[in-house]
Amino acid sequence: MKVFISGNIAPIGLKQLEENNIEVTQWKENRQITSEELIEACQNQDGLISVGPNKINADFLNACKHLKVIALHSVGFDQVDVKEANKLDIAIGNTPGVLSGATADTAFLLMLAVSRKAFYLHKKILKGEWKNYEPTPELGIELNGKTLGIFGMGKIGLEMAKKCIGAYQMPVIYHNRSNNEEAEKAIGAKYVSFEELLAQSDVLSIHTALTDETKDKFNLDVFKQMKREAIFINTARGGIHNEHDLTEALEQGIIWGAGLDVTNPEPMSADNPLLNMENVAVLPHIGSATQETRNAMAEIIVKNILAGIKGEPLPHQVN
Ligand code: DGY
């Protein structure tokens, strides 16, 4: 059986594929594979391990309808036309559960970095601009007791909330399509309307999937309903905020700061104005990038591939 991998996965995954006699071909170039190259590479393959934002759309799926299984190197599957995959009977697998802690850590890191302007001040040192000790340099804000708003209270949102309660005793409010009773019981999170979430959050952290409903959800109108001291954090998908509007909201002081692990587009270009703002911290989509999490993801991916190739239900199947 043959599998194409469109990037790197943790070595443990490669080893397990080899142990199961799977013949692997891997994309080795230091750039994202194009759609045409991906279609070409998947001919004569039984499965695909899709690493990165490859568009698994109708065109791709129809050009590769011989594939038995596509194992995503992500929990998110917004890049997949699930309906088309269903029609063509191609199993799609993802990696839920194992990356909640690491992704919540990234959200927490960004929150703290923004609150103390850490990335901006680090850049000043690199530029040789640390000249003396200043009692009132660019001042940060404290997080203790501030209200955390979670948009999308699932596993990752709950992990983020637990960290914020543990570190800063932050009361937690959240907005979802439906109540998350587990979060309400476990940490006393309070369900609020979207408008209340915007009005009351000091830190608003996004932990929802990118869907037609959430695309561009955080736009200028929405930022205007947030507190002027609010910090906006997005570790979910860049398409959930409108980057132009976010830039304007920050430039005009409509909100205080932003921490992004996801941008739109990705990669963000080096001359993006957000990168020079004092109250902004940006990371290159590293939410789940720890050794432990990437190993766990690779192991799930292999399980998904092996099941899919045998025509069995995947342990983590999205369709
Ligand atoms: C995920 O698992 O969805 C991460 O964001 C990587 O894409």
Describe the structure.
Belongs to the D-isomer specific 2-hydroxyacid dehydrogenase family. There is one protein chain. This protein has two domains: 2-98 and 290-309, 3-Layer(aba) Sandwich (Rossmann fold), CATH 3.40.50; 100-282, Rossmann fold (3-Layer(aba) Sandwich). Helices cover 36% and strands 14% of the residues. The chain has helices at 11-19, 35-42, 58-63, 82-88, 100-115, 118-126, 155-168, 181-187, 194-200, 220-224, 243-251, 291-309, and strands at residues 2-5, 23-26, 47-50, 69-72, 91-93, 148-151, 172-175, 190-191, 203-206, 231-234, 257-260, 280-282. The strands form two sheets. It has a seven-stranded parallel sheet with strand order 8-7-6-9-10-11-12, with helices on both faces. A five-stranded parallel sheet has the order 2-1-3-4-5, with helices on both faces. Helix 1 (11-19) packs parallel to helix 12 (291-309) and helix 5 (100-115) crosses helix 7. The chain is globular and about 65 Å long. The model has no long low-confidence stretch (mean pLDDT 97). The site of (2R)-2,3-dihydroxypropanoic acid (DGY) has 6 residues, from loops.
